[in-house]
Amino acid sequence: MWKIKNLKINSHVVLAPMAGITSSAYRKFMRRFGVGLVYTEMISDHGIVYQNEETLSYLNIEESERPLAIQIFGGDKEYLLKAIKYIDEHHIPHDLIDINLACPVPKVTKSGAGSKMLLNLDYLEECMQEIVKVSRSPVSAKIRLGFDNEHINVLEVCRILEKAGVSLIAIHARTAKELYSGEPHFDLIKDLGKKLSVPLIISGNIFNVEDAIKAKEITGATAIMVARGGVGNPELISSLNHYFETGEIIYQPNIVRQKKYCLEFAKLLIEEKGEKKAMPILRGLAPKFFFKMPYIKTLRNALTERVITYEDLKEILDEFIPDEE
Ligand SMILES: Cc1cc2nc3c(=O)[nH]c(=O)nc-3n(C[C@H](O)[C@H](O)[C@H](O)COP(=O)(O)O)c2cc1C
Known about the structure:
43% of the residues lie in helices and 15% in strands.
């Protein structure tokens, strides 16, 4: 157990924010495997302020999903503050307001948001101080090591965030320029978790238990953030929890259980979004449940190409995989 201010978190495994993936259904699904804290995908402050329908749908959050961080992005303090006020006034269930200072995508950085904020530290400081003042719930931030190799300023940014009064910092241990590839640079934030006055969550290439052990040991982080490694691989969460509780590494994914998980997730996603919106997402995500499995290529192709309805998904999986071990 660890704490973010007074909030108790039961697991050292945290579910990463992922645009297009971390829907309410995905969060509920992954919670069953033992994540201690979940994030929404990043939500536009402008979208909230202008009441964009799609943006507001990201705020359909159930009480049962807590502990939860709502992640917002924006490059303009006034809009960030208005978006936070909207969330508070509409009593949207959440425990943390997380500010995205990490996104490298031009659509986001062109307005000064996401990782672009790491290049303007005076403005960052001003924004974060006011956000902490205005938000009724604790504030956290997700950052990168810096914008690019010439601007690695993670330690300075952490000092600014601490001074502003944030309650939690998550670091994706790459620069924004590196996007999502290459090895994360945990060595650049060696023992940082031990030096910060707030808990540190570490992110970057967590695909198995050994990756998590390495990231946590080098950085001294309190918790591990699971992103791509958990997509279609929910037992990564339970095996991480098992390791943190017992020191034992057990990870034996099994195709029959993977089939069950895929169908469970499909049902939750259809419940959330309706079949028409859910199926294109499932054509992208369902194949991920069957990586590294036998006859995988034919199955994955069938899932990507032939799945129009839930029944199609079930039929294809039944064709390849039995219900019982
Ligand atoms: C498809 C995708 C979408 C992402 N969306 C977000 C996001 O909305 N907010 C955010 O802070 N990070 C986002 N990230 C970054 C992840 O939270 C995580 O920090 C990153 O993927 C590194 O972890 P990994 O190497 O274990 O995947 C996204 C990553 C991916 C792959």
